[in-house]
Amino acid sequence: MSRLPILIASCLFLSSLTAAVVTAAESDTPTAYSLLQSYNFPVGILPKGVVAYDLDTTTGKFHAYFNDSCSFNLVGSYQLNYKSTISGYISENKLKKLTGVKVKVLFLWLNIVEVIRNGDEMEFSVGITSANFAIQEFLESPQCGCGFECKDSKLDMIERIPFLSSS
Ligand SMILES: *[C@@H]1O[C@H](CO)[C@@H](O)[C@H](O)[C@H]1NC(C)=O
């Protein structure tokens, strides 16, 4: 008999062992939020509740996982929706090819495909148009449901430039 099945079984066992080790060491690995900051992004573009993520540091390809999808209002006007899995490519000041993040503009749900940090502004692009928001709006992660306006939030409402005004 071939030894291949045993070899495969050992590999599977080893890889599950590795996965367990990674989980156990999770407190030492950076959180998705501190990782965002290392790419010069504010934590507030990612809602609270990320349970896991993976990142290929050579390409910047990432996935982030929530227990559930997540909806809230962006500074009182636009509704945002994050799927339970989001993905994209991250590099300094730039998130591209995003999937799983939508914004409701008027009556349409549009995918946010790119987020760029430009100095003190965050630019969210839905392909056909983009909108800029002050970075101060994203200093804290929003919570699913009440978003940035949860009662313990210390964020001040500040001036913003709405979607569609820039087209
Ligand atoms: C996600 O689900 C697991 C299992 O149900 C639970 O233990 C954990 O607290 C949840 N995490 C969040 C952030 O909701």
UniProtKB/TrEMBL annotation:
One GO term of the biological process aspect: negative regulation of gene expression
Coiled-coil regions, chain positions: none
Keyword Methyltransferase: no
Secretion signal, residue range per the UniProt entry: 1-19
Gene Ontology cellular-component terms listed: cytosol; nucleus; plant-type vacuole; plasma membrane
UniProt cross-references to InterPro entries, sorted A to Z: At5g01610-like, DUF538
Keywords (A to Z) from UniProt: Signal
Protein name (database record): AT4g02370 protein
Organism: Arabidopsis thaliana
